[in-house]
Amino acid sequence: MRKHHIITVLLCTLAVSLTGCSEKTEPENNSGLTEVVQDTSDVTESVTDQNTENTPLQTSSVSSLSEDPSVTEDLKLAKLTLGPTNAGAITEDGTLYMWGDGDKYKLGNGDFSMARTPLKIMDNVDELYCGENSGAAITRDGSLYMWGSITPFPKQENALYKNLRFPEKIMDNVKYASLGISHAAVIKNDNSLYMWGPSSDGQLGNGINDIYEYPDTPVKIMDDVRCVSLGRLFSTAVTLDGSLYTWGSNKWAQLGNGKSGEDEFEAEPVKIMDNVKYACTFDTHSAAITEDGSLYMWGSNDFGQIGNGKSGEDEFEAEPVKIMDNVKYVSTGHGHSAAITEDGSIYMWGWNDSGQLGNGEHGVGVLSDVPVKIMDNVKSVSLGNGHSGALTEDGELYMWGNNAFNNIIGFKDDVYVPTRVYIPGK
Prior knowledge:
The structure is a single chain. This protein has 426 residues and is mainly beta. The protein has a single domain (2-13, 41-421), classed as 7 Propeller (Methylamine Dehydrogenase, Chain H). The radius of gyration is 20 Å and the shape is globular. The protein contains one helix and 31 strands. Strands 2-27-26-25-24 form a five-stranded mixed β-sheet, with no helix packed on it. A four-stranded antiparallel β-sheet has the order 4-5-6-7, with no helix packed on it. Strands 8-9-10-11 form a four-stranded antiparallel β-sheet, with no helix packed on it. The longest helix is centred in the N-terminal third of the chain and has 13 residues, at 2-14.
């Protein structure tokens, strides 16, 4: 398992970004954006312990950079989403900015190269989703736009083709979406779940697992769905009554059904838990928050990303394990995890080779297999392959971790503690 993660990250780091062009009209770009300047004054924050039923929590003092007085106006952000090697944010007025790795046009700006500074991509955006090689946005009128390397379903009136350089409208009446490596899902306004893409391991949930199964139109999978999240060759969904379902590959126990193995899979949704209000996955581990605020996790645990005090190459949890209480939001990344508690504190655990946990530590083999408190006053958090980001209640953006793809605005090297970064206003 450890080899799988290390190889994946090495391949990402060695990737070469190419420059592309487009014959289409480019949307409004990054005119008016300037290079971001970071300050150098440290402010040390103290942290406190939180009790948990199962796992002892560590705490850590973290230095964060205070606001740079040379930046007279910076945009207040409403939402933040990190992809594996890029990032995007939505301002309060619905403007979408993206930066970082642009390979396969996944920034949506028509270019194939990396963006060191945020680029304006679209207006009137309500939600952003970042996949391995693609992006998707839902606008305020419920329209779904997609870009990047997209799994095609060519019989649709608005056909999807690979390598969409700019956002293109795909469908109407969408309120939720998720992107996997090569499969995709949407929840329509009537709460019905549709999916498309390959289903080699049953990841579409349509009862078929075959390398040649490749629906060219979205397939309806379930009704009454609240949220959906796609991982590596598997999928999770929570219905309106709080039932959690999983399906697809179960090689690393990521389905949470008590099984694991190379040949294990489920081609149809299987019910795992009750009383769930939110669930998410990123790679091969998953998380769910129950109605009472309990956080449960399962799947691969080679870097301690489950947070249960264990780690190792052959470590995994095949069934949901309770990790923390009083949790209101959770995010999963490539080998690391984060949770926001009811008081606005963010806790992190898992892989920390590039400082992605934000506790000041980093290095080969460095990890934390229990939650560590990182910062306060947090509204949302999002994780990528090796970088992390959070929005405060005031709409301020903090980022830290791996910066190989210019994921962290204004920095050239990795950042080991939550650091204030800016998307400058006009």
